[in-house]
Specification:
Blueprint: E1 6-10, H1 13-23, E2 27-28, E3 37-41, E4 49-53, H2 54-61, E5 75-79, H3 83-92, E6 97-105, E7 108-114, E8 120-126
Parallel strand pairs: 1-4, 5-8
Antiparallel strand pairs: 2-3, 3-4, 6-7, 7-8
């Protein structure tokens, strides 16, 4: 078994597409800016984040899908090499940080923001273990 992606169900596909591509700088697979589906990948690693139009999935699953989630039900985590520099880049491109950059533990610094649908995104910088 292999994890292919984490998929977020979104109502405003175009706004979320712009956020993951233009603000976070992830590479879109096909360029489907209006959806109903797109996968985004970082420059390194095999993990991916995908967006799926919520209305399309509702047509497939009907009442099982339910209304939009209330409260936070997901957290997308991206590891970066230089948290301060990356935060400066994404805020210059329109992101608003909710928290950080700051130490979360003695081995990790983090910053948090939201995508246009309110999904939480955590940016992590892993620190070398201190001997």
């Amino acid at each position: 078994m292999e994890l292919a992606q984490v998929r977020l169900l979104v109502g405003d596909f175009a706004a979320c597409y712009r956020f993951y591509a233009d603000v976070l700088g992830l590479k879109p697979q096909s360029g489907a800016t209006e959806g109903p589906y797109e996968k985004f990948s970082p420059a390194v690693g095999s993990a991916g984040i995908a967006l799926q139009d919520r209305d399309m999935m509702s047509a497939v699953l009907g009442d099982e899908l339910g209304d939009g989630a209330t409260g936070h039900r997901s957290l997308v985590v991206l590891r970066v090499d230089d948290l301060d520099a990356y935060c400066a880049q994404v805020t210059a491109r329109g992101a608003t940080l909710l928290y950080g950059p700051a130490a979360m533990t003695d081995r990790m610094r983090v910053a948090h923001l939201k995508d246009p649908e309110g999904n939480l995104v955590e940016l992590q910088e892993w620190l070398l273990l201190r001997g």
